[in-house]
Design brief:
Number of domains: 2
Shape: elongated
Helix content: 25-40%
Number of helices: 10
Strand order of the largest sheet: 9-2-3-13
Distance between the termini: 47 Å
């Protein structure tokens, strides 16, 4: 994402929620709920059930045209429409870590801390205020003397975004964050704070995609363009340290373990390959060196130790390096140097170890298969359409939700 767009207010998509109140022959008040929009911006919609006091209690799957809504979990619940921002995205907030993000709406866990919950439990503070006001407006409509239509005008809400004007009662807007990405496993869009996260739809972490798709290629490009090999080696080691730290942080947050181990792992730096491999294998049965030969493990160990020499000793061999690296080709106080080929080999070894960690981590925290399967099926469908020269399928946003009759 362009830094200029970080933390910018994104207007609501607008539209109108219409409560149509009717009295039957016995004098009972009933209502229909309709959402409609004609603004020239992307718009999406989902629904939840809320108690009449404005407390969200369940998702409300609306289904297709003509499909009946499921019964509410508690009698008397109110169906509440929640519309997207003007980019077709929804903001959410974790009830555990309280962090905020945006996505298209299909969520099952927090991208930051991994907490799992139902979608309605991830509503932001502003959305919860909206739900409460929505329920109050419905109660007012049902208490009115005359039948008729009562409107919540979200167009006025959209028009007030970014302007120094008095905000409407239902006002809320979303906010752009720092990193936008599509999950490599299920395709879901995310706009998050920071760079690394879970996919909030399927639970796959994006760290490996970032490492092998962006971070390591950028370092390789610098190396090929004449960057100092020792500096590139340090950058690769730092990237791996960060990568392992992200996964280790989630493991100690979400896995039961003794406090001593949690504290030890929390303080670790992961450029010591021997110690890192031992801790992950002994504590979580994840072997980051799986599939590597003994020669490759020795090479990776030596190169991680060389990073330490460059980082802390100005490139001069010290006793720690001689002791920990197993390198017999150099002597104490000797200045060491790297080759371009050697650094590229280090990058390849780091990626293989990173893939082992990612795979082992998701053996423990399994991604949601249904979300991934839907994405794969959609890719196949689009590929088949393209082969028929029909182009990729486009589904226009739904502009109106089917009214449902509810009794007072």
């Amino acid at each position: 994402m362009n830094e200029a767009r970080e933390f910018q207010e994104i207007a609501h998509c607008g539209g109108q929620v219409i409560f149509t109140i009717r009295s039957d022959d016995e004098g009972r008040r009933r209502y229909q709920v309709t959402w409609q929009s004609s603004r020239p911006v992307p718009a999406a919609l989902y629904a939840i059930y809320a108690l009449r006091e404005g407390i969200p209690v369940a998702d409300l799957p609306m289904g297709g045209i003509g499909a009946p809504w499921p019964e509410p979990p508690v009698p008397g619940c109110v169906p509440v429409f929640i519309a997207s921002d003007s980019e077709g995205k929804f903001g959410f907030q974790c009830p555990r870590c309280e962090q905020y993000w945006r996505t298209r709406g299909g969520i099952s866990l927090c991208p930051y801390c991994g907490a799992r919950a139902e979608r309605h439990e991830f509503l932001s503070t502003a959305q919860r205020v909206y739900v409460r006001l929505y329920c109050e407006r419905l109660d007012e409509a049902l208490s009115a003397d005359e039948d008729g239509a009562h409107v919540i005008d979200m167009d006025a809400v959209a028009d007030a975004a970014g302007r120094d004007v008095e905000k409407p009662p239902f006002y809320y807007a979303e906010q752009s964050q720092q990193k936008q990405f599509n999950c490599s496993a299920c395709g879901e869009f995310h706009d998050i704070l920071g760079r690394f996260a879970y996919c909030s739809a399927c639970g796959t972490r994006n760290d490996l995609s970032e490492l092998e798709g962006s971070i390591i290629p950028a370092i390789r490009n610098d190396l090929n363009r004449g960057a100092v090999p020792s500096g590139c080696l340090k950058d690769i080691g730092s990237a791996f340290d960060t990568f392992v730290g992200q996964y280790a942080g989630q493991l100690i947050r979400n896995r039961p373990m003794r406090s001593g181990r949690r504290e030890r792992i929390g303080k670790m730096r992961f450029h010591d390959l021997v110690a890192t491999r031992r801790e992950l294998l002994g504590g979580f049965d994840i072997d980051i060196c799986e599939g590597l030969t003994e020669v490759e493990i020795a090479t990776a160990t030596r190169l991680f130790q060389r990073r330490h020499v460059y980082e802390h000793n100005g490139g001069e061999v010290d006793e720690k390096y001689l002791r920990d690296s197993g390198d017999t080709s150099v002597r104490l106080k000797q200045s060491i140097r790297e080759t371009q080929a050697g650094v590229h080999e280090f990058a390849s070894l780091v990626l293989r170890m990173a893939r082992n960690l990612h795979r082992g981590f998701h053996d423990i925290y399994e991604p949601a298969k249904a979300a991934i399967d839907r994405y794969e099926a959609e890719k196949k469908r689009l590929a088949a359409l393209q082969r028929q020269n029909e182009g990729p399928s486009r589904v226009p946003p739904v502009s109106t939700a089917k009214p449902q009759l509810r009794g007072e």
